[in-house]
Each structure stands twice: as structure tokens, then as C-alpha cells.
Amino acid sequence: MLNSQPRLLIAGTFRERASGTPIPVVNPCSGEVLWEQPACTAREVDEALAAARAAQVTWPGVHGWERGRILRSIAEAMRNRRQAIARALSLEIGRPLSQSEGEVNAAIEQFQWYAGEAERLFGETIPARNGGRLVVEHEPVGIVAAFSAWNFPVNLPVRKIAPALAAGCVVIVRPSEQVPMTTTLIAEACVEGGAPPGVVQVLFGRAADISPHLLDSEDVRKISLTGSTRVGQMLMADAARTMKRCSMELGGHSPVIVCADADVEQAARQCAAFKFRNAGQVCIAPNRFFVERDVLGRFLDVFEAEAKALVLGDSHDPATTMGPLTLESGRQKIEHLVEDAVSRGGRIVTGGKRPRNLNRGYFHEPTLVTDVPPDAALMAEEPFGPVAAVAAFSSLDEALARANSTLYGLAAYAFTGSHAKAETLSRGLRAGMVGLNTFVVAHAEAPFGGIGHSGMGREGGREAIRDYQNTKLTHFVAN
Predict the structure, then answer these.
(1) Of 109, 249, 365, 381, catalytic
(2) Contacts of 300 (CB under 8 A, 6+ apart)
(3) What residues contact 408, with CB distance under 8 A and at least 6 apart?
(4) DSSP assignment letter at 198
(5) Domains recognised in the chain with CATH numbers
(6) Catalytic: which of 190, 259, 271, 283?
(7) Has 249 been annotated as catalytic?
């Protein structure tokens, strides 16, 4: 049963009210208000910072084995809330309920993985050339401010909470205004799992009322953001004033190269399935499809059939396989991008408009546009919606040049039946993650992140926890 009201978490206590004007949360399937969330101002931020300072004194002293036990208990509390979290997620962002529990499962894996990492936070000892020993230790960086987006409202904050807690850091989470109920349930799991007061805190509200106070605080030593490149640039500039460490998982505009020697029909089915997942609102979604000219027709036929087979509707309808965009502004953006692509010579194969039978909410048909030229905005800007841009290529060098033609570098994909060509594509694609004959590049045990305008730092895997630690060297010499 869902709570009727999202709740803040400050100093171990949940609150239904805050000092700011409450913010309504709209159901993207209907346009109706789901609930109102309490909105923080500087008053609540100061309270959270005071609690975080106190918790940061004691939490690093909790042994890694005990932190690991708490993380596993949080995972179990998440598991017990799996259906409630999935329902809240589905209501708040419009993703079909049948597809929402998978994200909760992925978040549970994050807590489980970092429970093990908490138990393995070892340094090293190096024999010193000039006598004594060099001891390298890893210490928590300090208080972490975590900012997360709405499109994966469970996994994104958990990717920050889990490694922070494992490393001995306390964390203040400021999620998107769109997903307060989902985040409330995560916070409940953290408290039930044994996170002490002040170790995990959640602040809802407008960015302008919260973020500047966290960024100005010298006590906050690290920020972690999942969001747009524009927001990342602003936060990095603000963080520079107090020399905060930054981890940024930002925008993407993932290319896909489909070679003629691939299983073209199977590749097209995978491309369509992953492109329209979460209505295309995925940072690693494939957006730009470069298909070898000889097999372009076969690829388009299968992709079109898969797009037409999708069922648009309410997120809680079992028959629905694709929901709406979460925000009206997102729908307006993709309409502009499609219009621009067509004006420059692109051809709509299927979709391209709002569905006639759904006159409420923010729905848009799954759309396939081919013959998209390089100068179309759709090839340069991340659509973050259910629109696929397709163009033909004649040589692998041409495909790689077009794939690498943006400033983004989050994920890239390719399909080929040749091992030698796969090696060339892996080396040639400029991205933090590459999927060869697969779109599965997100794993709890592996690093997730990009390069260029797609950000810095990593989430997931052994690499991520180092972003929450300082490295200290001590040279011990006997008297």
C-alpha cells in the first residue's frame, strides 16, 4: 500500500511538511495530480547538513563488515517493498508496471555488490627503498550530495547511496521533483535496513532552494549527479569554488552500427526493443542507427514492424508495452526534432505524431525516421524520447566517423558477425561503454559512465567506490 504523502528524511525522522510551498506531482498518463511533495528551503538544508556532520564523525568508524551487513539489510528491505516501489515508479514516470520491477531488482543488486566491497576496503603496504614501509590507505571523502534524475528513479539514487555508505560516507539525496514517492520508499528501506540517523537523508524541493546551499557548504566534499550535460556544467562550476570532488553521469546520444554480416533481423528487433524502452527516456538509449546500405531495407522492415506492435496506454494497464513521455516538455522537444529532420530530407517510416486515441497525458507514437542527414538536429541532440534516426553507410570508416561525430561519449553499440570487425569497432567507437551484439552494458559489478560531454567518474564495479575515498600515504620509519 502506497503512502498518501511523500516524506522527507532528515536526521533519521520522516516529515510530511517542509518550509517551502508544496510541489504537485502529475501523472504523465493522465495529466492528473498524484500527490503533493513537501518542498525544502535553506532551513531544512541546514538541518540536514548538521545531522550529516554529526553522522560523518561516527559512520567511518563502523567496521566495513558491519557496513556490509547494513547494506545487505537495506537490500532485503528493498526486496520487501519491491511491488510498492514499482507501483510508485510507474505512476510517477509512466513506465509500464510490468517493466518497473526490473529496475528495483537492479537497485537491490547495487546494495548487495557494495556490501561485499565494504568488506574489502584494503590498502597496501610497499617496502620503501630508503627504509621503512609505505602504507597506502583509503579514507572516506566526507559528506556526499547526490542529485538524481527521474527517468530511473530507483537505480540512479541507489547507485550513489550504496557506494557512499560502503566507503564510509554519509549522503544527502536530492532527487527530481517528479519522483518523491519512489524516493520515499527507498529512504524507508534505508532506515529499516539499519542506516543510522543522518547517514542517509532525502530532501525534496526545487533545485534553486536546495542545490546552492549544498554546493556552497565546505562540509560537502563530493557531489554526484545524474542529469543533463548543461546541469553538469553548472554544478561543476559551482563545485570548483569549494574544491568538491565530482562524479557526473550526463547526457548521451548513443550510436549503433549495423554491419551487413550481422544477423540483421535479430539486430533490428534488439534495436527496436531497447530504443523504445521507457519511451526512449534512457541515457544509454540507442538513438542514431547507421546501417550498411546493402541491408538497410531489411533492417527498416523489421524495426518498423516492432515499433507498430507496441501498445501505448496507461502505465498500470497490463496490455501496455510503452507509456508516455514523463514531461510535456519532452514531447514538445521530440516533435521539434522530427519536424527539423523531415525538413532536411528525412523520411518518416512510422509514427511521427501524437496517437489519436490517447488525448490525455504526454503520449507520442514510437517513431522511425530514415535518410536523416548529418546536419539534422536529431543527429546532434539527444532526443530522450521514442524517436530513432537511421542513415545508411558504405564503409566502416564512414560509419565510425558518423558515430563519433558528437561531443557525447556515454555508450555505443555495434552488430557484426566478424570477430575481427568487432575488435575494430570496440577500439574505434569513442565511448565509455561499448556493446557488441548486445545492449546490456549496465552491471552492478562493472563500471558505468562516459567520456567527453557525457561526464566523468564511474558508477558500479570496483572503480566507483574510489570516487568516494581519499587516498592517504604514510611512510613509517622506525626510530
Answers:
(1) 249
(2) 268, 291, 349, 368, 370, 390
(3) 229, 251, 252, 253, 254, 382, 450, 452, 453, 454
(4) T
(5) 8-251+452-475 (3.40.605.10), 254-407+411-436 (3.40.309.10)
(6) 283
(7) yes
Question: By C-alpha distance, which of 361, 368, 359, 263 is closest to 309?
Answer: 368
Q: Cell 542529485 identifies what position?
A: 147
Indicate if 40 belongs to the active site.
no
Give the global pTM.
0.96
Residue-by-residue pLDDT tens, the chain, 479 positions? 455 799 999 999 999 999 999 999 999 999 999 999 999 999 999 999 999 999 999 999 999 999 999 999 999 999 999 999 999 999 999 999 999 999 999 999 999 999 999 999 999 999 999 999 999 999 999 999 999 999 999 999 999 999 999 999 999 999 999 999 999 999 999 999 999 999 999 999 999 999 999 999 999 999 999 999 999 999 999 999 999 999 999 999 999 999 999 999 999 999 999 999 999 999 999 999 999 999 999 999 999 999 999 999 999 999 999 999 999 999 999 999 999 999 999 999 999 999 999 989 999 999 999 999 999 999 999 999 999 999 999 999 999 999 999 999 999 999 999 999 999 999 999 999 999 999 999 999 999 999 999 999 999 999 999 999 999 999 999 98
